[in-house]
Design brief:
The chain is of the alpha/beta class and 329 residues long. It has two domains: 178 residues, NAD(P)-binding Rossmann-like Domain (Rossmann fold); 137 residues, N-(1-d-carboxylethyl)-l-norvaline Dehydrogenase, domain 2 (Orthogonal Bundle). Helix content is 56%, strand content 13%. It contains 16 helices and nine strands. Strands 1-9-8-7-6-5-2-3-4 form a nine-stranded mixed β-sheet, with helices on both faces. The protein is globular and about 65 Å long. The structure holds NADPH dihydro-nicotinamide-adenine-dinucleotide phosphate (NDP) and magnesium ion (MG) (2 copies). The site of NADPH dihydro-nicotinamide-adenine-dinucleotide phosphate has 24 residues, from helix 1, helix 2, helix 4 and strand 7. The site of one magnesium ion has 3 residues, from helix 8. This is Ketol-acid reductoisomerase (NADP(+)). Pathway: Amino-acid biosynthesis; L-valine biosynthesis; L-valine from pyruvate: step 2/4; Amino-acid biosynthesis; L-isoleucine biosynthesis; L-isoleucine from 2-oxobutanoate: step 2/4. Its EC number is 1.1.1.86. InterPro entries: 6-PGluconate_DH-like_C_sf, KARI, KARI_C, KARI_N, KARI_prok, NAD(P)-bd_dom_sf.
Length: 329
């Protein structure tokens, strides 16, 4: 079984006297920086001039250009977009890294695929929350935490693991659970999850259901409520108590349809596609494709995003949500 850590396994004193530079102040940067500060850690933020800089200053942080923040810090948590990390690392981080510093990531992409190769004289670790930044913040404010993964890629000081655990405690993750992993395992499972199940899988499943109903002549509004709106209710039940709790809450008719029809929707073809997607992640093909896409201003990403924004389901959804009070804020 995988090694698990809780509050009592992590010691915040490990971070005493150390300055943490959070590089980037987007989804993860903001959530992690605010939680660390509330946990009593010394935090500075590294950025370029722009919206995030403004936001971090308004939140009361000392904000510096990336190189300046790195010079001030013993721990450098890189929370830039994955596709920008290597370039920023080369010019603004690597030249200013001190011996014994701890270089930290929340996703293993750049280390695992060799885009960032740190010097042997620093620690390289990962603390990866399994949830978006606003949840990292909100759960912390509520006295809870989002689970996280930790991994050690390089342990120069002999303290890399303790620092990662303490950092995980600082962001509130040990209040939930922290799991031990490797950069390879985190990177590959994270990419697979978002592609095949969470983002890619779910949106494609919803679209397929919506289009099937609309093509058969049913009202798009009906189709929307049925296959998209209700998705959250079902997923919340699964989140709270697994398949069992969800199946306890639905009708017997729904349960029979679920168990007998579901496997026909996700059949052998889907298993084969998932296998292929996983292989492209493992052999670096996906990483190469995504990094190259970024060097030419993302033509594929832009075209596909636009096409989905114009999809009927988005128009119908916008209109229907306009009538529902829970979406008015
Ligand atoms: P975001 O896109 O939300 O934020 C990126 C931040 O980096 C922004 O503050 C942006 O500022 C800043 N930035 C971008 N380019 C530069 C640059 N050249 N120099 C200085 N600052 C720059 O990123 P995320 O928080 O989504 O992702 C950060 C990391 O966390 C990634 O490794 C990701 O895989 C990981 N992660 C993300 C999760 C999520 O839910 N979002 C979940 C778990 C891990 P500006 O306003 O100037 O553009
Ligand atoms: Mg993920
Ligand atoms: Mg991811």
């Amino acid at each position: 079984m995988v090694q698990k850590y809780y509050e009592s396994d992590a010691d915040l004193r490990t971070l005493e006297g150390k300055t943490i530079a959070v590089i980037g102040y987007g989804s993860q940067g903001r959530g992690q920086a605010l939680n660390l500060r509330d946990s009593g850690c010394q935090v500075v933020v590294g950025l370029r001039p722009g919206n995030s800089w403004q936001k971090a200053s308004e939140d009361g942080f000392e904000v510096y250009p990336v190189a300046e923040a790195v010079k001030r810090a013993e721990i450098i948590q890189i929370l830039l977009p994955d596709e920008s990390q290597a370039a920023v690392y080369r010019t603004e981080i690597s030249p200013f890294l001190r011996e014994n510093a701890c270089l930290m990531f929340s996703h293993g992409f750049n280390i695992h695929y060799g885009q960032i190769v740190p010097p042997p004289t620093v620690d390289v670790v990962m603390v990866a929350p399994k949830g978006p930044g606003h949840m990292v913040r909100r759960t912390y404010e509520e006295g809870e935490g989002v689970p996280a993964l930790i991994a050690v890629h390089q342990d120069y000081t002999g303290k890399a693991h303790a620092v990662a655990l303490a950092y995980a405690r600082g962001i509130g993750a040990t209040r939930a659970v922290v799991l031990e992993t490797t950069f390879a395992e985190e990177t590959e499972t994270d990419l697979f999850g978002e592609q095949a199940v969470l983002c890619g899988g779910v949106t494609s499943l919803i679209k397929a259901g919506f289009e099937t109903l609309v093509d058969a002549g049913y009202a798009p509004e009906m189709a929307y409520l049925e296959v998209l709106h209700e998705m959250k209710l079902i997923v919340d039940l699964i989140y709270e108590g697994g398949f069992t709790k969800m199946r306890d809450s639905i009708s017997n008719t729904a349960r029979y349809g679920d168990l007998t029809r579901g496997p026909r929707v996700i059949g052998p073809e889907t298993y084969a596609a998932m296998q292929e997607i996983l292989e492209e992640i493992q052999n670096g093909e996906f990483a190469r494709e995504w990094l190259l896409e970024n060097t030419v201003n993302r033509p594929v990403l832009n075209a596909l995003t636009r096409a989905d924004e114009e999809h009927l389901i988005e128009q119908v959804g916008k209109e229907l949500r306009g009538f529902m009070p829970q979406f008015q804020k």
